[in-house]
Design a protein that fits this description.
Shape: globular
Oligomer: single chain
Distance between the termini: 23 Å
Number of strands: 7
Radius of gyration: 16 Å
Number of domains: 1
Strand order of the largest sheet: 3-2-1-4-5-7-6
Bound molecules: S-adenosylmethionine
CATH superfamily: Vaccinia Virus protein VP39
CATH class: Alpha Beta
Structural class: alpha/beta
CATH architecture: 3-Layer(aba) Sandwich
């Protein structure tokens, strides 16, 4: 893959900033934050989308991974004033260029019906109801171009030793990943080999498009 941007070393935040960045509140563990950052760095050229942004930890990873580019970062959430204020504080901590961030307020299952923007990466972490996830996949996957990636949070159980210190998370994740699995597998069957699965990270499954969207 050609990369016309700055060398990777210049894109990484400096250590004090990095420390703050990994500690801002959110549901993503440190490994997942790095993974999201690196997937954005490797795959995003023009635009990416996060469904379900809450306090902005994932958005910070996407904005940071596309640092130094003109790439747009879209976010869809059921925004409320409190979450929005806290998200803006998070992004300040990340010290990223928020002028590239475009927020949509509303259910992704409605916004997706009118979506027309090509995307290089979609990170789904919104509604965890299986029917909603399936709708998100059906509505947004067609906008992901060749070599683009779909990332699904809470979709697998990490290795036990990775979550030994977070028992509540383990219980939640066991339930969430089991409830989402049939929706994901059903979508994959209907996609008829259009995606290959990349190496997972913690609770994230990652799929890369290998066939042009129809
Ligand atoms: C687990 S949090 C997201 C965590 C976030 N990705 C992070 O990096 O910490 C889930 C978010 O999804 C949003 N959400 C739930 N249902 C949604 C829907 N149908 N459409 C859009 N956003 C939704 C919630 O408002 C909440 O902010």
């Amino acid at each position: 893959m050609t990369d016309e941007r700055l060398p990777v070393a210049n894109l990484y935040p400096d250590p004090p900033l990095l420390d703050r960045w990994l500690n801002v509140p959110g549901h993503l563990c440190r490994k997942e934050r790095w993974k999201l950052h690196d997937l954005a760095l490797d795959h995003v050229r023009t635009a990416c989308l996060e469904i379900g942004s809450w306090l902005g930890a994932g958005l910070g990873c996407l904005l940071s991974g596309t640092r130094g580019t003109e790439a747009k970062v879209f976010s869809i959430d059921l925004y409320n004033e409190d979450a929005l204020q806290r998200q803006m504080l998070t992004l300040e901590a990340y010290d990223v260029d928020s002028t590239r961030l475009i927020r949509y307020d509303g259910p992704s299952q409605e916004i997706g019906k009118h979506w027309a923007i090509p995307l290089d990466l979609v990170f789904i972490d919104g509604s965890h109801e299986p029917e909603d996830l399936r709708q998100d996949l059906d509505l947004f996957a067609p906008h992901v171009g060749l070599e683009g990636v779909m990332i699904l949070h809470d979709s697998r159980m990490p290795d036990e030793d990775e979550i030994a210190d977070r028992v509540n998370r383990l219980y939640n994740l066991r339930r969430l990943s089991a409830q989402l699995r049939p929706a994901i597998e059903g979508w994959l069957v209907d996609q008829m080999g259009a995606w290959c699965e990349l190496e997972p990270c913690h609770s994230m499954r990652v799929f890369r498009r290998k066939v042009l969207p129809q």
